[in-house]
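FORM 7B: Structural annotation worksheet

SECTION A. Query
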Amino acid sequence: MKRLFTTLAVLFVGTITMATAQQANERPIYLDPDAPIEERVEDALSRMTLREKMAIIHAQSKFSAPGVPRLGISEIWCTDGPHGIRPEVMWDEWDQARWTNDSCIAYPALTCLAATWNRDCALSYGRSIGEEARFRDKDVLLGPGVNIYRTPLCGRNFEYMGEDPYLASEMVVPYVKGVQEQGVAACVKHYALNNEEQHRHTVDVSLSDRALREIYLPAFKAAVTEGGAWSLMGSYNKYRGTYACHNHRLLVEILKQEWGFDGAVISDWGGVHSTEEAIHNGLDMEFGTWTDGLREGASNAYDNYYMALPYLKLIESGEVGTEELDDKVRRVLRLTFRTAMNNDKPYGAMCSEAHSLAARQIAEEGIVLLKNHNNNLPIAPDAKRILVVGENAIKMMTVGGGSSSLKVKYECSPLDGIRNYYGDDVEVLYARGYVGDVTGDYNGVVTGQNLVDKRSPKRLIAEAVEMAREADHVIFIGGLNKSNNQDCEGTDRRSLDLPYNQDAVIEELAEVSDNLTVVFVSGNAVAMPWIDEVESVVQVWYLGSEAGNAIANVLSGEVNPSGKLPFTFGVKLEDYMAHAEGAKFPNPKKVFYHDGIFVGYRGFEKREIEPLFAFGHGLSYTTFEYSNLQLSATEAVAGNRIDETILEATVTITNRGDRAGKEVVQLYISDVESSVIRPKKELKGFEKVELQPGESKTITFSLTPEALAFYNENSSSWTVESGEYRVLISASSADIRLDKSFTLR
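SECTION B. Predicted structure
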């Protein structure tokens, strides 16, 4: 009803406004949907009073900003994502409003999307979730997240797109475009350096400019300059002593001046701390300050936001002017005309069959086969009894984890998916194995599951082991969940180890089964001390509504796995440079990123540490042959533009197996003669190719100077040096199949 009421008010006030304007022989450009947006913005701005300008740059409720009722300018309504549309909440509270028509389709977590290495999947994801947001009358989707996976302990890694800036950049652009095709603004977050959760409100991050530019900013830049993002969310943490939500260097110098961002910068909820800094340092819309709403702070908390009455008083006293305010208002109006007052936006759709199909296909393409000894998978077609073990086989994973928690129309569990797939042909048994977190509620959304089991760990393991002796195939489904200190906003993991005594369960099962598959539901890497004792390991992420169906299709062989890891799995925590040499994590006050540019595989290779599973790793039920790497020239000449093609690399991929499959062909660049320290190699291209048995395809990569550049701190610019480079064609960062050198002059 809230948007219906608003729409009626807009039509009524808009009619009066147009009549008045016609009487004055003046056309109200801002209400003309066919007029250029910039003309509409300037026309609306010229008609607004000071207080109306002030009103639209801060919230009026938990998730909305008021618009200008007098002029018929619509409210803006935000919704949490990035994996589905959050249920409606109370006006001033986080708890749900208990609507009966706000269930959604849950899409796989963004770690899974990144693991598809498929730009088409990212576009499908954006379009689908954008349609659901549009149908629910939301104007801003608070996502996607592209913070870099610096450490496997960060509780919010499951919402992000991995450790590599190039992969994240390539995947975020189609997601943003897909969302915004629906007339909904993507709000890319959390800008920037939000790499830990426990002390995210207080930690002050410092790092080299080179690390900032090469590792932590590229995905945000791509979302803005290539994806055309209409909004962006600041992060809670500080950067060099100043909060990121009003940080002049991040928001003004880099985002708006250097990248030309014309959208609105939205604060994270409660991320604003100063009126004067918010005025001058690039923030455009303030949300969530005093997040208990009207119960705390003042009789009207929203009017007392930093960018409300305190700002107005500074203007009225003459201490500040209105230049900054007008810029903020222009950006909010631009956002409004692109979304809420965009008459060409589609109607959207909710919980459609197409959305379920998209969710399942993305899930299937993101599942990663990590190990498959003796072709233990797919499950043998003559298997008659399958045992599924583990709490994560039955626990709903769409509820919890923080702001990405959802109220779903349905969620197919892994156990149900496997049983649905095999029907009556195979006996599928279940044993609990371990008990983790038996709760299941978040902000008033309750799973309704009763997971209480008071048996001792010893009895649970004994039951599972006894049943495993009689099973043709055993599937352990465990990992993490979305509880505190696991994969969860606001807290970080305490170790790399599996919780709830799962290692003991796996080891006992391995003793009695020669066909044991370990399936991990998680958004983070975990330690695997038993890795040599099990036949196969599968990383399945948080897969959303279609989780069970996707998992069953891959384990059975109905779908050939094609996912690749978007981050490195270390053997132990100290393998990651963020934790090397006794580095403290999480950091309550200050942290310097001593790992610099050596995040993820870059750091493993610098220190010559062999990972458990490399970045980009992922197996298939078929085999692929790489051949015939050709470079367009062995000597390349740098172009005048950073995006000008200077070299093409072609490679042939052949499916040598007996079933169709998809392979992600990865291109890395190695700078052989650099004047500065550089990673041994860096991802600079990838393509996912589908091949039938015996089929070959040729893939072409176009290289630009940007692929060879590093950020030069002496000149504060990107530098491309002449000299020798190597093109490495790989199946993962640790599996180089072909390489050739060329010289740049």
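SECTION C. Observations
The longest strand covers residues 661-671. The two ends are 64 Å apart (CA to CA).

SECTION D. Sign-off
Analyst initials: ____
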